[in-house]
Structure formats: structure tokens, C-alpha cells
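Field log, afternoon session.

UNIT: design team B
ACTIVITY: writing a sequence onto a fixed backbone
BACKBONE:
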């Protein structure tokens, strides 16, 4: 009897080709389309709405001769992803909705719906791979980077558990994106020429302040420019063997800089951001180097090489430390060298992880640009993603 696989069919080319490959491998394939966000008024013009996506998904399912189930999970998405996102921005943090979307929706709500249909396995169109090994007589699932270095999406799955990986399949993880497009064109799939989705998972590309204004009210405040020298002087006072100091964000006050303009609300902005400040007249563009939510102040610096944009380390509180491989988890005072990334598509960076009672401290070989509270740091051993955590 054939094993049944439920593929998350989004209307995109990746999940379409994944569905085809599963059929070719002899599985009994059915597809599931999830409606997670219905308000197209917040997306920028030109982004596909879910109505367009579902039309393409239906055409693909018909072409591949597989049943398509449609589930409205917009309430789950609002509770588990969108509400969390609004709450984090309100605190001055910058959450990653794509990581949350995978942990809470694609590998949770989706899996529950698929089980109701009778799935033995669940599949997605992610560019990543899974291997099974054995540790102390027990099966262990390894999450590996996708073979295409330009499309590796393992970072987005950095919060998955062994239970979530157990029955997951990633049919295109070994392929390059051009190969996926070529196969879709050869098969004459309706999604062959559909451009890759951008912006917030299931929502699309948005003007962030406008999007956040659904829940967070505008609140005008000062934009203060901090000269390079102020940061250099602060850093010269740092004890470079003090993990806590190296991993904490710099604190500024308005007297250390120059008033450059007015912003719409500190909770709308994030470290490293350049666009949206509406301040000109400087020799180099202004970048956000720090936000003070309590006093509603944004601190900026000139140029992409401003020292305020760079930090040597970051801290992940223990309650936010997550190991995909629990058998690799640290004991107190353990330390090890790993490769780390703090955002999607960033090149892996050499770093040392230190396990202390309050959490994990990560010290990079080279200072990192735009370390942002609320984002996820993910650590790798070679091509295997071992764990991750929310940056404090």
C-alpha cells in the first residue's frame, strides 16, 4: 500500500515541483492549500493575493492529478504569528515571522490538518534536506542546508523539533533553483513563471509602518545622530573578556548626539534600517544603530560602516535556547566553535558559543552588522543546523 504524503501547495513553483517529484517517487500524494492572511489592503501593489495563489494551486493540482484540500487557518495565523509580531515590535524587538510561521503554522497547524486527512508524511517546498542517523540506539533526524547555496532555507526552520522533523519530507532540497524552474516549465505547470514570494510569510511585501499601524499607534519622537567617535570611546572602555558586556547592545543618550529629525514611532524601526527615516542633508546615508522604546528615541549613524552598526557578540536567554539536536545540547559552562548566522542568506560566520546559567553567549570571530533583538541566531556544525535562539 502506498504511503500518503500531504504536500503544502502554495501556488509557488517550489511546492509545485515538490508535489510532482513525490508522485514520481511512488507516493499517494494529496495537496493542502492554507488560507492564512486575507487582508490584501496592507500588501504593496503587485503582490499576489491568496485568491490568485489558490487559483494557481488548483491548476497545478489538476495538472498533476492530485486532490487539493483548502483550509482556512487565518485565525491560527493571527494568534500564533501576527499577534506575536505586533507584541514584539511594541517592545522594540524585531521578530522573524518566517521562522515563527514555519514552527507554528507549516509544521504545526498544517501537520494537524494533514493527519486528519490520513497523512503518513508531510512535505514542503523548502530548500533544505533531512537525514536520519542513530544515536545510542535511537533515531535522530538531522536538518541539513539545501544544496543550492543561493536558496538554502534551513535558517527558516531553525526552531523545528525532532517530532516535527520525524515525518517531514523536503523533495527539492537537493536541487538548484534553476533546475526547479526548468522542470516546472517542461511540465507546463501554471506556477512555472510565478515569481518568488517576498516579505512577511503568507502576508507578502508590506510597508512596515503602515502594516504595524493596524495595532501600534504612531508616536512622534526624536532622531538623534551619534558620531563615530562616541561609539569608539564607549568600545575602548569595554573589557574584551566580559561576555555580558560584549553581548549587550550599546546604550546612548540624546546629549551624545545631534537632533536630525522626527520619526513616527520608535517601535516601527529596526537596527540597520536605512529607508523610512525621511532625513536628508548628510554626506552619507543615515542608518539606525539603536532604538530607545521607553523614551521613544531613534539613534542613527552615518554610513554603512558606522561602528555603531557592528557588535562582537550576542546573547540568547536560556528560555529561548532551542536545540534541534537535543543530544548535542550544552551542559553548564560548555563551549564550542560553530558556524552562526543571524539572518536569512547571511554567510555563515565563525563564532564560539558559551553556555552559562542564564543562557548562551555567542562571540564572533569578526564583528557582525545589525545584530537585532528579537531575531533568531542559528548555529551550524558544517552543513547541519543544530539549534537556534531568540536574540536578547
Amino acid at each position: 500500500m502506498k504511503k500518503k504524503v500531504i504536500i503544502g501547495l502554495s501556488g509557488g513553483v517550489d511546492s509545485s515541483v515538490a508535489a510532482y517529484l513525490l508522485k514520481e517517487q511512488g507516493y499517494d500524494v494529496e495537496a493542502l492549500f492554507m488560507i492564512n492572511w486575507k487582508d490584501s489592503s496592507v500588501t504593496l501593489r503587485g503582490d499576489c493575493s491568496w485568491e490568485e495563489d489558490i487559483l494557481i494551486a488548483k491548476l497545478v493540482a489538476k495538472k498533476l492529478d492530485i486532490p487539493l484540500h483548502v483550509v482556512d487557518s487565518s485565525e491560527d495565523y493571527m494568534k500564533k504569528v501576527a499577534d506575536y509580531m505586533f507584541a514584539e515590535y511594541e517592545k522594540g524587538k524585531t521578530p522573524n515571522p518566517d521562522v515563527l510561521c514555519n514552527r507554528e503554522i507549516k509544521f504545526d497547524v498544517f501537520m494537524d490538518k494533514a493527519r486528519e486527512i490520513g497523512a503518513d508524511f508531510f512535505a514542503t517546498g523548502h530548500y533544505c534536506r533531512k537525514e536520519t542517523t542513530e544515536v545510542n540506539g535511537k533515531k535522530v533526524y538531522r536538518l541539513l542546508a539545501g544544496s543550492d547555496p543561493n536558496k538554502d532555507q534551513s535558517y527558516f526552520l531553525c526552531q523545528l523539533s525532532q517530532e516535527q522533523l520525524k515525518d517531514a519530507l523536503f523533495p527539492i532540497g537537493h536541487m538548484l533553483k534553476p533546475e526547479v524552474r526548468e522542470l516546472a516549465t517542461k511540465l507546463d505547470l501554471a506556477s512555472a513563471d510565478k515569481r518568488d514570494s517576498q516579505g512577511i510569510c503568507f502576508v507578502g511585501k508590506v510597508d512596515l509602518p503602515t502594516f504595524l499601524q493596524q495595532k501600534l499607534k504612531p508616536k512622534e519622537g526624536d532622531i538623534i545622530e551619534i558620531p563615530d567617535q562616541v561609539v569608539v570611546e564607549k568600545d575602548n572602555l569595554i573589557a574584551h573578556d566580559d561576555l555580558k558586556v560584549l553581548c549587550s547592545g550599546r546604550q546612548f543618550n540624546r546629549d551624545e548626539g545631534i537632533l536630525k529629525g522626527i520619526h513616527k514611532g520608535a517601535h516601527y524601526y529596526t537596527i540597520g534600517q536605512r529607508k523610512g527615516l525621511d532625513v536628508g542633508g548628510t554626506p552619507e546615508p543615515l542608518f539606525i544603530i539603536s532604538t530607545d522604546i521607553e523614551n521613544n528615541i531613534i539613534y542613527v549613524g552615518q554610513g554603512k560602516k558606522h561602528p555603531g552598526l557592528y557588535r562582537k557578540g550576542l546573547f540568547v536567554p536560556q528560555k529561548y535556547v532551542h536545540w534541534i539536536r537535543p543530544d548535542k545540547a550544552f551542559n553548564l559552562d560548555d563551549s564550542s566553535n560553530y558556524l552562526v548566522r543571524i539572518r536569512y542568506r547571511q554567510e555563515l560566520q565563525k563564532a564560539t558559543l558559551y553556555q552559562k546559567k542564564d543562557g548562551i553567549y555567542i562571540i564572533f570571530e569578526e564583528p557582525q552588522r545589525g545584530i537585532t533583538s528579537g531575531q533568531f541566531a542559528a548555529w551550524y556544525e558544517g552543513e547541519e543546523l543544530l539549534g537556534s535562539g531568540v536574540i536578547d
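LOG NOTE: The radius of gyration is 22 Å.
NEXT ACTIVITY: expression trials, pending approval
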